[in-house]
Write a structure and sequence with these properties.
The structure is a single chain. The protein has twelve helices and 13 strands. By secondary structure, it is of the alpha/beta class. The strands form three sheets. It has a six-stranded mixed sheet with strand order 4-5-13-10-11-12, sandwiched between helices. It has a four-stranded parallel sheet with strand order 8-7-6-9, with helices on both faces. A three-stranded antiparallel sheet has the order 2-1-3, with no helix packed on it. β6, α3 and β7 form a beta-alpha-beta unit. α2 packs across α6.
Amino acid sequence: MSKATNSLFTHLACVECGEQHDRHQVQYVCKNESCKAILSAQYDFASNTLTKEELKNRPASLWRYKEFLPVVDEKNIVSLGEGFTPVLPLLNLEKYTEGKQVLLKDESNNPTGSFKARGLSLAVSKAKELGVKEFVIPTAGNAGGALAAYAARGGLKAHVFMPKLTPAAFKFEARLFGADVTEVDGNISDCGKLANAQAAENGWFDVSTLKEPYRLEGKKTMGYEIAEQLNWTVPDVILYPTGGGTGIVGIWKAFNELEQLGWIGSKRPRMVAVQSDSCNGIYTAFHQKEERSTYKDNGFTVANGLRVPKPYADKVILQVLRDSNGNSVSVNDADILSALRELGAHEGLFVAPEGAALWHAYKVLNQEGWIKAGETVLLLNTGSGYKYLENII
């Protein structure tokens, strides 16, 4: 028997022009031709009756926050146990952390080994609720495997477009889960063009980053968890590896929603977008005080997930950085690999190269004095290093 989730989801709204979109129909971006910005799920928080204390009795997954997620009927939830990943203090790198509390939220504990499980669980679940049967995605690696896994779990079909330079483990993973995988001689933007064309031709649902509204809802649960795991406080600083940027946008959305619920106050962390020198358009735009980034791709980086030449939501990402009095750091591959080995040797953590970039960025900001004594800093490691062995060894 079907059971309601008691979701407070009311509608979708464009983040720029505010135009409302029907939650009962498949949606992508704003239909206003002069806008075409991302859509954001809206909720009736005033009607909420759930208390923070009640969460303690709920399963340790992102679906513990089901009232604030868009799936209406529990029969449509496609889950592999994603979410509620640990927050670990860094213990043995006092040379760099002395006087601060430095934490790492480890998303490698998710199904398929990365934070992409969150967004794809939500996107597949909601699309299934809306009658979608077949999906397509351009990916730098982890998102393709996650879509393939959740499509398999939901009895649905996935098509994955992935750069040829992606490590073999990602390709094998997506194929293992039954997806059709197309390798593209180019970057994720090239994959996106092909995926979009195939979606239009075949009627597939395109779950490209922030070109549909529900992956964002999965990613925002990182923000809910951070607040809950820190006893309903927020860190002073959050460092986030920024390719498509869904996580930065989602975490910021989560904190705003939690304040509406009365579960946290008005304090916000300073958000830091960390990029690879290979694709650092957000970094450049932030420091040059531009409203949008420009396309930038200097080729391969060991942090495949950071090779996103121009994020679709660049304007929103930059706005979050400025609203939070945040920052942006760009890191080269040599420093990423050095940081990866340092975290492994001293903390027993085999983080993804994208996560390792955060540790180097932290050291840069700490050395510059941008991070202050007594502050709590959270690094959001987005995945496991094991899939990247051919990039690392």
